[in-house]
Amino acid sequence: MQLPPLGSIRFFEATARLLSVKLAAEELHVTPGAVTQQVHKLEEFLGCALFERRSRALSLTEAGRTYFAACQESLGVLDRATSKITASRQVILVSCTPTFAAQWLVPRLQQFLGTAPEVDVHVSTTHRKVDLAREGVHFAVRHGLGSYPGLVSRLLLDDDLIPVCGPRLIAPRRSAAQADITSERLLHDSRRDDWQLWAQAAGMHELDANQGVVFVDSNATIEAAVAGHGVALVRRSLVEAELASRRLIAIKAPPLRATLAYYLVYREQTLEQPAMQKFFDWITWLASTHRPRADTAP
Q: What global pTM score does this model have?
């Protein structure tokens, strides 16, 4: 039996389905370089090219199309066989950003799993807006205005943004004031305009929001603040654990009302399955406990 390097099949299938090394890497939680290496390994084994590589796009060669169809058929057989064996357990696939997963969802997820031992929750982290139907995602958490055509959305978190810093930044003092927020200390995520909006609302017109370090991922912004490298403007609900343990300190300064919110997004038919309804009830109830009192009042 002549079998290809089986590990490479998964990388090839994702790349062929998405026609993007970058998107395949995000889905598989590896680097684009790792995807490219595995695809080349498979091409070397087969002795032919599977992709036509252009400057800005990928397309399958004739051999690639034939092999992709065979891979999908084979993986489908394995998936169905696996599903029969594991039919007693329901898998819920949740897509969200790395920050939401690490700072809010995963630390609380054990609570849900303790009440639903028959359910497995798989968390897929990406900044990409996934196609729920095509990619088999049951729920997605999106940061936006809440309007997603063809999908149902439910508000999760819309609490204020607050300025925070690590104890090292203000040592030996144990509390921080608005005066501790200076231009060179600003830590930004990809939404750099948040600090500008905060400065206008707080009346700190001398604050230059163009200064400071910019991070692509909010997790890095939070960790930089914990390490004492500056001041971050973050949603309180995402740093509750750090505030409780005093790894972060809330600065005595006005909060900023967030223009965007986190929404749970799903297809209407998803809640027809009892396990999905159970997860939906849990996460929406949990989120409601983190909203301002005015939002949860009858």
A: 0.67
